[in-house]
Amino acid sequence: MTLLHRVLYPEPMLSLDEYLARGGGKGVTAARAMDPLAIIDRVAASGLRGRGGAGFPTGRKWQTVAENRSPVAPSTVIVNAAEGEPGTFKDRSILRRNPYLVVEGAIIAALAVGADLAIVATKQSFGGEVDRLRDAMEEMEDAGLNEGVGLAVFEGPDEYLYGEESALLESVDGRWPFPRVVPTFRRGVYAGADPDVPEGPALVNNTETLANIPRILIRGPEWFRGVGTEASPGTIVCTVTGYTRQHGVGEVRMGTPLGEVIEAIGGGPRPGRSVKAVMSGVATGVITADRLDTPVSYEGLAAIGSGLGSAGFIVLDDSVDMAAVAAGVARFLAVESCGQCSPCKLDGATLATALATVATSEARDHDYGVIRKRLATVADRSRCFLATQQQVSVGSIVERFADEIEAHVRGGADPVEPELIAELVDIRGGRAILDERHRAKQLDWSFNERDSGTVPVERYQKVAPPWLR
Ligand SMILES: Cc1cc2nc3c(=O)[nH]c(=O)nc-3n(C[C@H](O)[C@H](O)[C@H](O)COP(=O)(O)O)c2cc1C
Ligand code: SF4
Fold it and tell me: 228 falls in which pLDDT band (50, 70, 90)?
């Protein structure tokens, strides 16, 4: 299977001159000659769906933001470059190789929805990508490519929740990443505007989503639909990590069988091993080995009780204990929960503890009962999707690998430590580097020896975010 290079370039694009010489910049030129509604129509006709995880139709989102323009406050485009989903490294890979493409997509989005500012919201710790972006923006400004659209980079915190779109806006506005109730197309960011004027709407799109935009404008919706499936047109940039021969990122046609993606990017399972399960990040149901022929598409993975998420495939082989995986996922999500919704934080924490007890073979029937009960309630009254992720991803492992979980409870399995599930720091020399610091992160988001017993929203609401000082 050949990998494609529509948005993930094989080599880094080193200058704006090189980008323009290879056809870059034509998307903005085309957009400037079009009516904003015609731009939105073209994106809608392409069938592009958001690559940040939910797969929401991009054209429809742009239309909603355009319709919600405020008569007094400016609209803003926010590029979600927070990339924190465990097992995912595609946005950083795209930015490292071609930041011009993403910024060009953001400028076109701003022209379409009537925004006068585009902010790329990345992380302070993504130093290399931040430098690449700043340099690219400076070159594009010097060349006048962004006329009428201000460009900025925001360096946010490492918290997983920062990637949730309304938490992202909170962070850009100088607060902690705690999700809001009001949708982003109603309340965006101040971003230096008049503080007495309510915020105008924000269009939040994922990095990969926007990287697709320039070519859709130049080559048209039919070209975009030339690969992929009817419901999931185009390509998808996949990350493969876990128990495979190698780790990496590659762009494939939507609809490619999952097993082929694992083979092409990850080199397949390690010698003498076989795939037991695959997780698409920690937002969807676990995929069992008998489903490796499933097409990598929104509808294909949903049909087997999973989902595409952000196409970060964590491959687990027959040496892995699924109780350890369930405990690792539950811990990651419980720690990263902000605590605005009690069931998400408290049931999540109970689940993490109970599953760790299962993995270390200290659990009894009672703990198994607790796990089932808390899985049923953890997503109650939740403000954002993180709580549902806990319910769906952990619930699916407990259900689909019930034999392995029960073996621990009945004393028939060796004790194991929870698997580390955490953000990727980098992929170097074909190996993924996980954020080892997460092992020490407490439920209150501190790295203190002991957790304070408070939840992040209580602990930090009145404290100025340290990354802004
Ligand atoms: C807990 C959580 C973390 C998220 N992290 C990211 C992220 O790192 N990057 C991203 O693009 N979207 C992330 N999302 C999804 C965003 O909220 C949002 O759906 C996305 O930025 C929309 O862009 P799209 O329509 O182009 O996909 C996250 C969602 C949740 C609930
Ligand atoms: S669902 Fe969880 S992470 Fe989301 S706002 Fe509520 S407590 Fe915070």
Answer: very high
